[in-house]
Amino acid sequence: MPAITVEDLLVLPRLPELDPAATRVRPVRQLVTAPIGTEGEGFQVRRGFAGVSMQDLDPFVHFDQIGEVELAPGEPLGTPWHPHRGFETVSYIIDGAIEHQDSNGGGGLISDGDTQWMTAGAGILHIETPPESLVASGGVFHGTQLWVNLPKAKKFSPPRYQDIRGGQAALLTTPDGGALIRVIAGDIAGHAGPGVTHTPITLTHITVEPGARVDLPWNPGYNALVYALNGSGTIGEERRPIHMGQLAVLGQGDALTLQADPSQESRSPKLDLYVIGGQPIREPVFHYGPFVMNTRQEVIQAVEDYQAGRLGVIPAERLPHTG
Q1: Considering the domain boundaries, does residue 90 fall inside one?
Q2: Domain Pirin N-terminal: where (predicted)?
Q3: Is 84 annotated in some ligand binding site?
Q4: What is the DSSP letter of 85?
Q5: Is residue 18 exposed (0-12), middle (13-18) or buried (19+ Cβ within 10 Å)?
Q6: 232 in a structural domain
């Protein structure tokens, strides 16, 4: 995977050794397999949260894995201009590239470990498209998109865009150097990621070597969700099997135990996990299409505001390429 890597993991800061007598490892409460759906102009995605209750997902709303897929020339697709209100989108590119532009002036090119973090807040229009070079040549594409809810008091926050380069993530490893932990947002064992969110969360991408184990300290006030991007392994002290395209919903505790199977497929030589958790908002959620509000009436108002052009105006010119 081209997402940020380190040649020698042993040079990185290391997770603390956890005391088994004083640690509550979170058990697996639910394991679901993501169904395949269609997004944007027709590209396939895995719907990572399908079948999970909003109560267990809170403060998250939606999660898609795009790829990993080998695209022929002309096949890469994106999304048309579309609106959002009431939440944040977090797009993480593991392999390939995507261009973003929004009606608030944010955007640019992200690739290979970069993250674009867009706060829709009061309302925004945006578009995500593959760069012309990728459309012309084809190639591998692999990424994710996460929706983070905003509490009622912050749903009308001003729109904001964060361009987070892969090299900005906090990097650490396990005591034996068996995994690369990329902290994109939040804090793990005192190592803070660069992402800034209105809703307190932790977001990390972990690559686990075959047979290696990760004992990850976790905020006991957060929920915990583990999605397998690639490979196979186990979750929890009960060693619940998990493989690519599955999401584990974990129960209460202050640590996560993750382990890669000793033998992995040749196309997925390591276990890659997208691990997220956050402070539950515990407010009503009314989710309709690109709007995440508290009530049906607020969504109706969002639709009316969009139709009236109050969520933004499509820029006349494309942003220049950045990276």
Answers
A1: yes
A2: 43-148
A3: yes
A4: B
A5: middle
A6: yes
pTM of the complete model: 0.93
Q: Which helix (H) or strand (E) holds 68?
A: strand 60-71
82 carries a ligand binding annotation: yes
Please state, in angstroms and rounded to a whole number, the distance separating the CA atoms of residues 106 and 28. Answer: 39
Residue 198 marked ligand-binding: no
Is 128 annotated as contributing to ligand binding? yes
Residue 32 has pLDDT above 70, yes or no: yes
Q: Work out the end-to-end distance of the chain between its first and last CA atoms, rounded to an integer number of angstroms.
A: 19
Give the domain CATH number at 112. Answer: 2.60.120.10
Asked whether 69 and 139 are in contact (CB, 8 A), the reply is no
Residue-wise pLDDT for 189-228, tens only, equals 999 999 998 999 999 999 999 999 999 999 999 999 999 9
pLDDT digits (tens, 9 = 90+) for 42-83: 568 899 999 999 999 999 999 999 888 777 777 667 788 999
How far apart, in whole angstroms, are the C-alpha atoms of residue 229 and residue 233?
11
What phi and psi values does residue 270 have, to the nearest 5 degrees? -135, 165
Kindly state the helix (H) or strand (E) to which residue 137 belongs, with its residue range.
helix 132-137
**The pairing of beta strand 286-288 with beta strand 291-293:** antiparallel
| Mean pLDDT for the stretch of residues 105-109 | 88
Nearest to 322 by CA among 107, 57, 17, 1: 107
Look-up of token digits 């997220």? 276
In the chain, the largest separation of any two C-alpha atoms, in whole Å, equals 61
The residue whose two tokens read 């990728």 is 134
